[in-house]
Amino acid sequence: MSQQARVDIVTGVLGRNHRTVEFPKNNGKQELMSEVFGKNVFGTREMSDRLPKPVFKTFSSQLKGGQTLDKVTADAIAHAAKVWALERGATHFTHWFQPLNDSTAEKHDSFLTLKTTFSNGLPDVTALETFSGSELLQSEPDASSFPSGGMRTTFEARGYTVWDTKSPMFLQEGPHGTMVLYIPSVFISYNGEALDEKSVLLRSSSVISKVALEILHLIEPIEDDVPRTKEIFTTLGTEQEYFLIDRALYALRPDLKTCGRTLIGGLPARHQQLEDHYFGKIPTRVLAAMSEIELELAKLGVPIKTRHNEVAPCQFEAAPIFEEAMLAVDHNLLTMDIMHRVAHKYKLKCLFHEKPFKGVNGSGKHCNWSLSTDRGDNLLSPTSTPETNYRFLLFLVACLKGVYDHGDLLRAGVASASNDHRLGAQEAPPGIISAFLGSELNEVLNAIEEGRPVNKVLAGTETTHMRVTGTTLDLKVATLPKLNRDMTDRNRTSPFAFTGNKFEFRAVGSKQSPSFPVTILNSAIASALMEIRDDLKKQKGDKAVASDEDMLVVIRKYITLTKNIRYEGDNYSDEWVQEAAKRGLPNIVKSPEAFQRLLTPKNKEMFMRLGVFTEPELESRYHILSEKYTKEIHIEAQTLVGMLIEHVLPAAFSYRRELSESAAFMKQISAESAPEMKWLSQLAPICTGLQDAAESLESVLAEAQHIEESFAAADHACTKVSPVIEKARLLTDQLEKLCADKYWPLPKYHELFSTL
């Protein structure tokens, strides 16, 4: 690898042919996205058209929990799905599931089957396409080859994938224009333990739905002309941040290829400090890729709403329309997959690592969470009178109570070696979990707690006894309309911020599946809702429904209990760290400590009481997360050693030789050699330091081979290996500035940032 390779790639981008895609047309006119939307999804509308009415009715009842799926119904659905898929060019089907590695898995099986009949005693083999109900309902991957945290061993290999009937089947493009039928599934072991992310998410969604429904039935009177709420849905919108860089330059960076982030590299003179990339003009190649990504996702029924430049150079974001949480998680994982595959077609590499480039903003996956009824009511919508909207207030204080009681769990849910580089780095929430409500909602809660009328603060003046609502702003320009202002401001430093009718869990990492963090959030709030339900029952007594006063008593209690979790200021500040300590809120800086919080008696009791995790399943998550953390840091250390020995030090030595020869020549002709000698004197200690760092990394990695216990290994990686990686980086970044460009073999930040 040489500097010339970098130059060739950077200049080659200018002459590269751009990919063009023909968008779907109907009678010569481009189809609307609404017409394309869901065309590759075997959803309820398609099933309704293709299934006999009794079969579809039985399936609909099963979706609502009314009955289990029988063989006759499964066979009918499988046949209809097969016909639909074959009509569109499908050759294979696969159970698509989410093992415990923040990714998805699939094993393709052909529809092709051989049928043998006998005529006059001779076999007659016929090839045909078949797909049975049993093939639809379950499959059998190897359960010992996925992370299991000790629940499975090599000789305990049997596991099952089972169709998640609430997530529709869909088609994805295979090779040469063919299609593959995807069957969203859960993944369990032979003994029934959850070996995936989806099973526990479904459990948590079920338990929060059940207890939320019980609360609604305690506070809502039965009316003859109004249908009663029968189901509550957890809703989710996942804003996905990501980086795009030229794939050819990516191929020259061993750290990006192996670790997903740059282990070395100094900032260029210009990066994000002018604040001109955020919401700026989207580069042409990137916009073309985005358009194709959105087209492919529309076919899969994934509702991408927003696209834009993010703060850092080469950083972008896509945000969907909110959906039921289970489906939103499926769609987020599909989004990441489609982004990755389409980017390759444009000679781009999509990076989901939380911090691929030191010194510029990293990426998150902001999870916008709420609760909705089967009548379409958002339970976290404050309406124009939140101070008397007791239903809203009950669910609001339940969210606060869940976060207050189990903030350490929420921190554990977003912990990873990669997210540690982002959390608290002046671009993402720190390791302290708090909640932001905004000044007006805070005033509502304070007024209720203190038993006084609500004060409304408007434009710096205080007016008493006024209802809290959103306001308008006069922009002082006659041609501009008045601006409707939301009830709350946005606090981007808060890890759990109320944003109008939902909470935004901002601490989730960009490359992780949202399933585990949302499972924890669902569970924590479900536990709080159970406490509120029990208090409401006691307060209600023999009355048919709880009165306003009954609800106020309960609301006031939980406002008082959760005051410490509410914070309206700058979560990045040192003052907040000190204040949080006074409030008794945990500040969990590194992941190994966060993982341990999964197994505290309080948190274990909560999960098992709710039935979200069994004890073995929870312990397995702890071991999987700890081991993954350790392995990722060890991989980074090994990669960095290779880069130092194979690329960085040889470049330095070559440059030193040139300087030495130049200094010797200067002396030979009696010329001044001080500049060369000064440069050499600066290079020498850096080279020595890098050699020592490489040896230190090899030494601490050798130590790690003898550590077996999960926490000890993760703690060693955190406290012994990571500091040496960082030390080597500091030295290498100094060397990059000193070394002549013609000797530097690795693409530099300014090249990675400027070739879109």
Secondary structure layout plus pairing:
Elements (H helix, E strand, L loop, with lengths): L2 H12 L10 E2 L2 E2 L2 H4 L4 E2 L1 H7 L2 H11 L7 H17 L2 E7 L11 E3 L1 E8 L2 E8 L3 H5 E2 L19 E5 L5 E5 L5 E11 L8 H22 L12 E15 H5 L2 H6 L24 H16 L4 E6 L5 E6 L2 E2 H21 L2 E4 L13 E9 L16 H24 L21 E2 L2 H12 L5 E3 L2 E3 L7 E3 L9 E3 L10 E3 L4 E3 L9 H26 L7 H14 L12 H10 L7 H6 L4 H10 L4 H54 L5 H31 L5 H29 L10 H4 L4
Parallel strand pairs: 4-11, 18-23
Antiparallel strand pairs: 1-2, 3-10, 4-5, 6-7, 8-9, 9-11, 10-11, 12-14, 12-15, 12-16, 12-17, 13-14, 17-24, 19-20, 21-22, 23-24
Enter the CATH topology name of the domain at 32-196. Ubiquitin-like (UB roll)
Unreliable residue runs: 458-469
Biggest sheet, open or closed, and with what strands and sense? 9 strands, mixed
Question: Helix content range of the residues, please?
Answer: 40-55%
CATH homologous superfamily descriptor of the domain at 32-196 = Glutamine synthetase, N-terminal domain
Tally the beta strands. 24
Count of discrete alpha- or pi-helical segments spanning 4 or more residues:
22
Instruction: Report the top-level CATH class of the domain at 32-196.
Output: Alpha Beta
Radius of gyration: 29 Å
Quaternary organization: single chain
CATH hierarchy: architecture of the domain at 32-196: Roll
The percent range for strand residues is: 15-25%
Supply the helix-strand structural class. Answer: alpha+beta
